[in-house]
Specification:
By secondary structure, the protein is α/β, with parallel strands linked by helices. It is built from 15 helices and 12 strands. Helix 9 runs antiparallel to helix 11. The longest helix is centred in the middle third of the chain and has 15 residues.
Length: 388
């Protein structure tokens, strides 16, 4: 890579991608917004991100890497703290033994390159990567463990014990309280990691927060075990549960907003020896429904499933442990079968994703709307396909 500082705007003009007046307009906009010139040009639709990346790759003689199709090493990523990674728009992609491969959205920023060389334990080799993919990688590889621990410590300092919290929590509606910030951070971390469930489990000496990601529980341990009651109480208030009942299990639902979109939360409490344990199932409506091709199912098995789905009659059982992909498989199959000439009815508890054209029934046993009664009615609705 050349050590000469590159003036991106001049380079773009030289290559004929923009003209001088467009550059002046972009520079004026940059002074107002504070964004980098490349991001400004893309926002103004004067160049595409692909054009910009290819130009930087060719001119700087560095590789252009597609993060989404690169085998990024999680261990290598952790060599660079998240704060510095976001500051310099960089990500350590691979440890090559004698040097580190570092992806940057702007490898022409020599100050950032020099600072990264000082921070990292080995010499670096720079590659150019998409900034959009970079932000996605940050959410995938960096977790909010430090932030969660910090908010937990604030909460422990704010409330010295369970009784003091219970006297004040019901009257406190401010969203900037320590417990609200901690829960928001936990939810954001879980959604970033694409977790299906969050477990909050009090222990004698500590609090365990576990998330089920790809069917496997990942654990964060918080030494401030006295905050468990605060979290459980706040969650009960959110879900409309009886905060005075700690002896019996309770079920409820609530919604939270993460990064501007809604996440439905199904909540279950259970009394344990050290307090109350809470498990929350996260239903992120913005994530959408995966197609069968996107489930990762082996091709022979996928082909066999499609043969079964095309049969005019019969029954398919989808079974497996928690997190194995039952819901994903069912919704993927429904999406493939969802055609105007078919009437599809589902009986669910809960309805996890909304599907157009499909009549989805939410079971409610409290009013007698259980599976058996809904199925009897369903048979009179002239269905072609029923999913339970």
């Amino acid at each position: 890579m050349s050590g000469v500082k590159v003036r991106l705007g001049d380079l773009l003009v030289q290559q004929g991608l923009i003209d001088e007046p467009q550059l002046m307009s972009a520079l004026a906009d940059q002074r107002q917004t504070g964004r980098k010139l490349g991001a400004t040009l893309i926002a103004m639709e004067l160049v595409t991100e692909k054009q910009l990346l290819e130009l930087l790759s060719t001119h700087l003689n560095v590789p252009l890497i597609d993060i989404d199709h690169f085998n990024v090493s999680p261990a290598a990523v952790k060599l660079l703290p998240e704060v510095q990674a976001r500051r310099y728009r960089a990500l350590v992609l691979e440890d090559r033994g004698d040097k580190l491969l570092v992806g940057m959205s702007d490898p022409a920023d020599l100050t950032a390159v020099d600072n990264l060389s000082e921070i990292l334990p080995k010499p670096i080799e720079v590659a150019v990567v998409s900034e959009q993919q970079l932000f996605g990688a940050y959410d995938s590889f960096y977790r909010r463990t430090d932030e969660i621990a910090s908010f937990a410590q604030q909460l422990a300092n704010e409330y010295r014990g369970e009784q003091e919290f219970e006297l004040t929590a019901g009257l406190e509606d401010e969203q900037d309280t320590a417990v609200a910030r901690l829960l928001q951070s936990i939810f954001e971390d879980a959604v970033q990691a694409k977790a299906s469930d969050i477990h909050i489990e009090p222990d004698e000496q500590q609090l365990r927060i576990r998330q089920r990601v790809d069917g496997v529980l990942q654990e964060t341990v918080i030494p401030e075990n006295n905050i468990a009651a605060a979290l459980v109480l706040r969650l009960k208030l959110m879900a409309g549960l009886d905060i005075s009942e700690k002896r019996l299990p309770q079920d409820g639902r609530t919604q939270v907003r993460v990064k501007g979109h809604r996440v439905d939360v199904r909540l279950s409490t259970m009394p344990v020896q050290t307090g109350e344990a809470v498990v929350m199932r996260l239903l992120d409506q913005s994530a959408g429904v995966l197609t069968l091709d996107e489930t990762g199912m082996p091709r022979p098995l996928l082909d066999r499933l499609r043969v079964l789905l095309k049969r005019p009659h019969g029954m398919i059982l989808v079974t497996g442990p928690t997190g194995s992909g039952k819901t994903t498989t069912l919704y993927g199959a429904l999406s493939e079968l969802n055609q105007p000439q078919r009437k599809i009815i589902t009986v669910e508890d809960p309805v996890e994703y909304r599907l157009p054209r499909i009549n989805q029934v939410q079971v409610n046993s409290r009013i007698g709307l259980n599976f058996s009664s809904v199925l009897r009615t369903t048979l009179r609705q002239d269905p072609d396909i029923i999913m339970v």
